[in-house]
Structure formats: structure tokens, C-alpha cells
Amino acid sequence: MALHAELHRHLGGSVVPRILWRYLEQNSSELISRFTEYSTFEEYYTGKRNTLDEYLELHTLVESVQIVETLPYFIYRLIRGAYIFENLAYLELRYTPYLRTPDTFNQSQRIEKMAEIVDIVGKASQISEYPVITSQILCMHSRLPYEVNKAIIDLAAQNKHYVCAVDIAGGDIYYRERLEEWISLYDYALSLGLNTTGHLYETSNGCYPELLPYLRRIGHGIQIPLLYPELLPDLAKHQQCLEVCPTTYIKTGTLQDISKLKTVFDLCFANGVDIAICTDNAGLHNMRLPFEYENLLTHNIINFQQLQACQDAAFRHAFAWPHSQGPASLLNGLLNPKL
């Protein structure tokens, strides 16, 4: 049995449509009142959007119900599905804790409440019957003020037993006007010994070379091989891994055809840049990680040898994987002790 690592999955976008529908039926009927039946809700929830901004608006629907009282409900089902249907051995969940706090609180109260969110997510993710190694990535947000984003970094540093890295999310077009601020925040995170990743070079609006030196991994990064391939040797030199999420680029309208990703993989392999294949928002896409693999193979974007290289890279670049080897080597040792 192959075991996989998922390095880029959002907590908000991870809820599969059927589970969200059942929850809303029982608890928040007003949020689904405009849908006559489940099929129309699923079509809306998983449908293709025209822009990244339009796509990101879907997160607000889930964020509004992922609160202190309900997070264990959603996380249990998330981990169960990841273990049973995806064969995940390792999962990094990313989210903005501030957006899970009550919007009736003032900013200071919401910042203080974030610690409880991180603790709940951490404890709820440890499920003995579904032994997946999990860790959290806390996302700064492009539409949140500096004080909140700095508090998110401080919270990550104070909870390294649950948190493995910080990220920036919320729409890459908005980074430019506050670029010096993001640089200072990432520099601060590194000074605290935190790992870093960031939504960068996902779209043509998100190309900020100034931020690259501050990232251990790059969230998406597909525009580097597509538009700026001259940057690839430097990424290889610094061992920066791309977190490529194939279905996302079709859902957001970033790419019209998945075949465009062949250039991404070919150039990265040619230049020695690692890629981890990820789902991003498995629930919004109705997509499991093994199906991402299958789609890339079916469309002749990668071959089986390259797929194995990407799977190995995912464990090698996992921020909180506790072993020096991937699970295949560990299983071989258990099942074939003479090897």
C-alpha cells in the first residue's frame, strides 16, 4: 500500500460537499436556503470560478461555521477521509486562526482567542483510530492588518508542538502594496526559527521575487517555470520545493488546460527543482490526492518515475515528518526484516 504526504491543504477548503451539506441542514439552514437540493449545492460549491478572488470567496462560507464548537466535528471527518480514502501518512493543514474567531469580538479579543483555535485543531487532529501524522501551518492574510499577522507568527512560535510553519494567503494581487511589510514579517518568522511557505507565483499577479529568499517552500509557484524559468536554478540551489496543486488552476481560471502543467514539471525536473503534488482544497474540488496523481499520469504530464520522485519529495520537504526516510522504506524494514 502506498502512503502519501499532503503538504498543501486548506482547512476551510478541505470539507467535502456532502459533509458540509449535512452540517448546514442540521445547524445553519439559512446558509443553504437558496439551494433546492444537494445536487445544486454541490454544483455551486465545487464549480469552476473565473478568477482566484472569486474562488477564494467560497472559503468564507466554511470559515463562518468552523468555530470553536464545530472544529472537532469537521476535523474528525477530514482525518478519517484522508486516512481511509487517500492513504495519507502525513498531512499539513493550513488556515488563518483569526478567521475562526467570533467576528463580534474586537481585534484584541480575536487575537487572544486564536490560541484556543490552534489548541483545538491540534488536539482534534490526533485520532488514534486514524493514525495520520498532522501539523498546522498558520496563514497570515493579505487583507488582515500587520498587528494580526504578527500575532499569528508569534502564536506559531509559541506552539511548535502543533505548528510547523507560517504562510501568507488571501489573494496574491494584494501583496504589492504592502510588500515591505511581508518581507519584514517573514524575516521575523525566520528569526524565531519558524519554517516558511507562501502563496506565490500562483497567478501572473503573484510574481514577487523579493519574497523568494524568505521561503523554504513555495505555495504553487507554477508561474516561475511558465514565465520566469531563469529563476529555477536558484530555487534548486536553495532546495526550495514547489507545492503544485493541479486542479486548483483549472477551478480558478488560472489555466484553461491542465496540459500546461507539463511545461512546469518538465522544466522543474530539468533544473533539479522538487515538486510536491498537492490538493489545495480537496473539498471544494471534490478531489482526493491519489486522483491528482492519476490525472497527471492520464494526461501524460508526468510518468510513473516522475510521480515517485514527487511523492518522495513531499516527505523530504515535509516540515514535521519525524523520520529520515519515507514510509515505503520504513514498511520494507518491517515487512522484510532481512533486507
Automatic annotation (TrEMBL):
GO terms for molecular function: adenosine deaminase activity; metal ion binding. This is adenosine deaminase. Its EC number is 3.5.4.4. It comes from Richelia intracellularis HH01. Pfam families: A_deaminase (PF00962). Keywords: Hydrolase, Metal-binding, Zinc. Residues 5-320 form the Adenosine deaminase domain. Coiled coil: none annotated. InterPro entries: A_deaminase_dom, Ado/ade_deaminase, Metal_Hydrolase. The keyword Metal-binding applies. GO terms for cellular component: cytosol. Belongs to the metallo-dependent hydrolases superfamily. Adenosine and AMP deaminases family. One of its GO terms (biological process) is adenosine catabolic process. Its cofactor is Zn(2+).
